[in-house]
Structure formats: structure tokens, C-alpha cells
């Protein structure tokens, strides 16, 4: 028989030793043996006076560690950087798996989209609301998500990322992290001061986590959103709904602006919001349809630069004009010799 893990949090070393003594007494009373090898102490924001400090439990000294994994998240005295790198690597692993799955399934669009949103994203997002993510780091996750979208849609490297997001109908990682962080902040502000999560929040009020939260507020265009209205006084359910609405509006605004700046998405701009489409299948025709809608077909007007003696002229018809997507889809005149 064995008991589950126990995590003890303390604000100072003396209090921690008192709590360890209580654990030792409990173990003695209930005949529970404590593992010396698996017991460790992680000091966060310590000073020089803690350098030689030792802690005892069950008559044994507990070794100190520089990092510790708890509930799937690596913690160290600098934060959660190791977990961030681990999640980025996990996202890339998922793309590799989805590439294999797509080759073996009847409808790669639905299968890849379902696995990515239903399994991959939750495994990547677990606990991310407690971390500080730079724009560069979240962009790395976004690049990986776009790779998954290209697999599902059969998209080549010329396709704009706005088109991938538009037809996959999913949020960006920047939006997901923003929602998670703001919802976590709303919970902490409503939490009793005696809770440890609330204490950690108070300690970091002017540190990186809070500064990152303020940056997210600025990004949504609602700086100070937590000071008034439902964000401060409403129920958590109402607050969560409001956060989702504001972040999604900002994400949609950036998506529309990105489309307006891409000449290849001229035909695609009539789409008013990202949503999944039902007319894609795993056939080559579905891949060609997607590329045609985004003007990313490998036509001569695009590919001639990389061909020896390449020409823009259409070789399929007798008109002698450049082979563009519009020409290929709407104008091509083929001469059939009989």
C-alpha cells in the first residue's frame, strides 16, 4: 500500500520544516513510510541565507532540486520555460503523427481537423494559462498548427496562412493563450486571499505574468477591462463569455486585415469568418479546389522562374496568353484533333 504524492507549499523555510514535522507525525501514526529518494525541495525566489538550509522529513534530509514536474508542468526557480519548449516539441510531434494518419484515412480533412482540435490542442494547452508566453514563442506554435492545416487541406507552400485558418475554422494559439490567461486572471481575482493560488498571484502582481496579462489587454483594445463592469463584478460564467467574445473579435479583425493585404486571396475575401468547410475530401480534386480558391495552383505564371527555359504561356490552349489561375479555371481553350 502507498499514499499518493503530497505537495507542501510554504512562505518561509521555518514554516516548511514545521509542516514537514507534521507530515512525519502523520506517517508515524498511520504507519506510512515516506520515500527519501522521491522527496525534494524546490526553492523559488530564495536568497543567500537559503543556500545552506536543510530540511528533514522522517529523520532523513531532503535533497534540493532545481526543477520539479508537477501535474505535467515543469517548475524551476525561473518559471516554466522548460514546459514551454516541451509543448512546442509536442506540437511538432503531433504534426508528424497527423501526416501519417492523413495518408491512411478516407477523409483526411475531417480526421486531421478532429484529431488536432480534439486531442492535440488540449494536450498542448494544458496549464499554459499559468505561464508567460512571448509573441515569438506563440508564433512557433502557430507555425506548427499551420503545418497541420496544410496536411488536412493538401495545401502547398504558396498558400497564405489566413486561408488555412479560414477553411480549418480554428483559433490561433495567440487567441487560445490570451483566453486562458485572462480567464485565469479573472478566477484569481475572485479567489479567497487564503488560497495559495491567490497568494502567488499577489506576489507576482508586478512581475512578468501580470505584465503579460496587461499586454493581452492592450492587444484586445480593452486596457483596464478587469477594473469595471462584468469583468470585475459579474459571475465567472459571464466573465468567461465576455473574455471569449473580445478575444475572438480581435482575432477575427487580424484575420480580415491579413486577407486584405494578400493579393492571392482576392477571391477569398467574401468569407466573413473562419469556419470549417464540408466540401473538402481526401481526393486530389479537393486539394486542387482549395488551391484554386486561394490562387496557389502551380500555374506557369507562378512557376516559370524555377523551370529551365520556363515560360508563362499556357501550353494547354491556342490563345498564347499567360497561364494564370483565372485563365486555367475560366478561359482555357483546348484544341482536340480528331
Automatic annotation (TrEMBL):
<dbReference type="InterPro" id="IPR043502">
    <property type="entry name" value="DNA/RNA_pol_sf"/>
</dbReference>
<dbReference type="InterPro" id="IPR000477">
    <property type="entry name" value="RT_dom"/>
</dbReference>
<dbReference type="Pfam" id="PF00078">
    <property type="entry name" value="RVT_1"/>
</dbReference>
<dbReference type="GO" id="GO:0071897">
    <property type="term" value="P:DNA biosynthetic process"/>
</dbReference>
<protein>
    <recommendedName>
        <fullName>Reverse transcriptase domain-containing protein</fullName>
    </recommendedName>
</protein>
<feature type="domain" description="Reverse transcriptase">
    <location>
        <begin position="1"/>
        <end position="75"/>
    </location>
</feature>
Amino acid at each position: 500500500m502507498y499514499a499518493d504524492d503530497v505537495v507542501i507549499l510554504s512562505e518561509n523555510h521555518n514554516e516548511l520544516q514545521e509542516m514537514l514535522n507534521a507530515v512525519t507525525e502523520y506517517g508515524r501514526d498511520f504507519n506510512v513510510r515516506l520515500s527519501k529518494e522521491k522527496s525534494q525541495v524546490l526553492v523559488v525566489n530564495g536568497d543567500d541565507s537559503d543556500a545552506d538550509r536543510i530540511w528533514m522529513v522522517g529523520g532523513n534530509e531532503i535533497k534540493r532540486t532545481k526543477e520539479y514536474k508537477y501535474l505535467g508542468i515543469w517548475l524551476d526557480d525561473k518559471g516554466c520555460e522548460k514546459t514551454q519548449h516541451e509543448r512546442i516539441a509536442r506540437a511538432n510531434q503531433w504534426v508528424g503523427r497527423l501526416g501519417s494518419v492523413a495518408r491512411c484515412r478516407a477523409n483526411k480533412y475531417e480526421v486531421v481537423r478532429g484529431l488536432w482540435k480534439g486531442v492535440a490542442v488540449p494536450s498542448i494547452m494544458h496549464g499554459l494559462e499559468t505561464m508567460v508566453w512571448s509573441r515569438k514563442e506563440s508564433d512557433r506554435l502557430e507555425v506548427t498548427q499551420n503545418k497541420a492545416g496544410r496536411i488536412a487541406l493538401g495545401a502547398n507552400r504558396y498558400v497564405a496562412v489566413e486561408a488555412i485558418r479560414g477553411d480549418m475554422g480554428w483559433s490561433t494559439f495567440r487567441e487560445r493563450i490570451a483566453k486562458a490567461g485572462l480567464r485565469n486572471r479573472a478566477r484569481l481575482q475572485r479567489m479567497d486571499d487564503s488560497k495559495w493560488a491567490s497568494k502567488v498571484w499577489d506576489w507576482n502582481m508586478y512581475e512578468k505574468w501580470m505584465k503579460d496579462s496587461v499586454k493581452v489587454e492592450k492587444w484586445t483594445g480593452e486596457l483596464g477591462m478587469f477594473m469595471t463592469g462584468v469583468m470585475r463584478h459579474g459571475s465567472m460564467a459571464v466573465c468567461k463569455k465576455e473574455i471569449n467574445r473580445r478575444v475572438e473579435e480581435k482575432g477575427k479583425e487580424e484575420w480580415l486585415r491579413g486577407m486584405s493585404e494578400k493579393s492571392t486571396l482576392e477571391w477569398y475575401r467574401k468569407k466573413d469568418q473562419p469556419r470549417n468547410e464540408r466540401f473538402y475530401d481526401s481526393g486530389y480534386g479537393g486539394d486542387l479546389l482549395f488551391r484554386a480558391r486561394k490562387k496557389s495552383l502551380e500555374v506557369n505564371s507562378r512557376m516559370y522562374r524555377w523551370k529551365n527555359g520556363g515560360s508563362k504561356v499556357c501550353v494547354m490552349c491556342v490563345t498564347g496568353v499567360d497561364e494564370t489561375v483565372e485563365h486555367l479555371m475560366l478561359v482555357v481553350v483546348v484544341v482536340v484533333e480528331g
